[in-house]
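ok so i was messing around last nite and threw this chain in just to see what happens. nothing serious, just curious
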Amino acid sequence: MEENNYINQNYNLIRLKKYLNYEVSGLVLFILSFQVFIFIFLASAAVLIFTPFMLYVLYTEKKKGWLILFIIIVFIPLMVLIVSFIFIEFSRPMLFISIGLFYFYFFLLRFDVNEWVREAGAKNQYLRDKKKRELELKSFTDNFN
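result:
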């Protein structure tokens, strides 16, 4: 059971890595730069869809520092954005700042997630090698006893 849980956590971590390393082509960004509202809508939709999964993976991996950084970099400016909707002239710049900070957080997180996946792969390889050595040792001792 513990092995299945480890595999599931590893799978979620690999999925998070895949999503964080996904790149949009330059042509798509160029076309969307002329349609600012569509770009903002798509960027906001990606944030809303991806955030629960990202928070789930960070919570299951027990990365409390990254969760606290999320609150500082993303959640607090989001609350300021919600309050700034009272003052219409401040809402649009705050929207850009909030989305920009969120994607900056993704950018920073991407480097650590890549490292976590490498560490998990190395740990998995070590466990397989250890099990293989134990089986070889058991086979060797059984043959000579």
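not much to say yet. The chain has one domain: 2-143.
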